[in-house]
Amino acid sequence: MKKIALVVQRFGEEIIGGSEDYALKIAILLSKSYKIDILTTTAKDHLTWNNSYQEGEKQFSKNIIIKRFKVDFQRNKSGHYESDYFGLLCHTLYDGNAASLYCSSEELKENLNNRARNLPLGFAEEFIKYQGPYSADLLKYIREYDHNYEIVIFMTYLYATTYYGINCIKDKKKIILIPTYHDELPAYLPAYYRYVNIKHLCSTQPEKEFAEKRLFKEKLNCSVIGYGMKDKNADINNELPITQDRYILYAGRLEESKGVDKLYKMYEQYYQHSNQDIKLFTIGDGKLKNDKHEGILYKGFVSEEEKLLLMKNAIALVHPSPYESLGLVVLEAFMMKTPAIVNSECEVLKSHIDISNAGFYYSNQKEFESSINHLASDKKEYLEKSENARTYFLDNFNEKSYELKLHKEINKICQRKNPDSNELRGRAFDGNATLE
């Protein structure tokens, strides 16, 4: 059985994160036909990269092995540039502006983007290295053993494990990059231009267009393969204990980078003058989890079943992030027939709403409040958008369809590397295979 390496910055079933969850899904799907080595670090916290897991190998399932390597240095969680080297690099990248101001005006955003494009390559590589997680042992392993792998998949574009790991692969034609590009300032650094000749698998057409039109300004060797999710709608039992409150739901990392601080402010303003007693429930983890606000109830870290049950019973899922390449949590909500309210600054999330007609997007306080009120007060509109959400999920994010697309892309590379192999030429994915 052929071997594939999947390189990701951190990995663990208890880790909440879009690309980390995505890595687990890919590993499980590909392990039906290949042996998978997940090459990652011992980090669990994506802010500090502290070494939390034990180094070495761990059997995850029959065909999946996790190989963890220690992180060389950690980051200061406070983010104060005066006392933290990475903070100083961020201060330089943002030209002395607070990162939270990046999307405050299109003029400032474009000026910073253009400035980032023209920063020295040395600065860009230093930024990527200290953004982390940087592991010399991981890079040494990739350099010495990449010949053992038919294909090496890197996730996601941003981190040191991807940027420096790609440089360790001798045969660049066997690399697949799953970039999860989104419109954030580091994406414009000149170092990432080295990705242009790497095979890309993007999740959405807006992600591909953003990379080609905004980041690199040239065509990429890129396929859009979407995303596949197992339909769990019927598995979630509404008889499980659930609150009597009417609520909107946020699920994910409770951090400023996800727009949660702005969501809190907008919701508080809504709650104070609204005549509807609609709570905001939050689930997940992050430094904003202990912020106290009237009407906001932090539900903590919940099980997968509890999360989906909370989604199923919510008026809407709200996603305030301006930076997303896919928006997995929105798709989960759609799976549960729950409409979404999203930040219009994020083209991918806005595209989901435009195509599905399964919710609303907002750009100001008035639109935010109107979105909640429409779904909370207009039963006919709610039911229509609820049905639209479910239809959009079933038509576009079916797990089996995604699985076939993923294997097709893998087989293309295998056949190109082994043109005379009867085993690989015309190899068909066995859709009836199961994970043991």
Kindly list the characteristics that best describe this protein.
single chain, 436 residues, alpha/beta, Rossmann fold, 2 domains, eight-stranded mixed sheet, six-stranded parallel sheet, 14 helices, 14 strands
Overview of the structural elements:
The structure is a single chain. With 436 residues, the protein is α/β, with parallel strands linked by helices. The protein has 14 helices and 14 strands. Strands 3-4-2-1-5-6-7-8 form an eight-stranded mixed β-sheet, with helices on both faces. It folds into two domains: 3-74 and 127-228 and 399-417, Glycogen Phosphorylase B (Rossmann fold, 3-Layer(aba) Sandwich); 233-396, Rossmann fold, CATH 3.40.50. Residues 421-436 have low confidence and may be disordered. The chain is globular and about 65 Å long.
Tell me the layout of helices and strands:
Blueprint: E1 3-7, H1 18-30, E2 35-41, E3 56-61, E4 64-69, H2 85-93, H3 106-117, H4 121-131, H5 136-145, E5 151-155, H6 160-167, E6 175-178, E7 199-202, H7 205-215, E8 222-224, E9 246-251, H8 260-273, E10 278-283, E11 296-300, H9 304-312, E12 316-319, H10 328-335, E13 340-343, H11 347-356, E14 359-362, H12 365-377, H13 379-396, H14 399-417
Parallel strand pairs: 1-2, 1-5, 2-4, 5-6, 6-7, 7-8, 9-10, 9-12, 10-11, 12-13, 13-14
Antiparallel strand pairs: 3-4
Helix pairs in contact: 2-4, 10-13
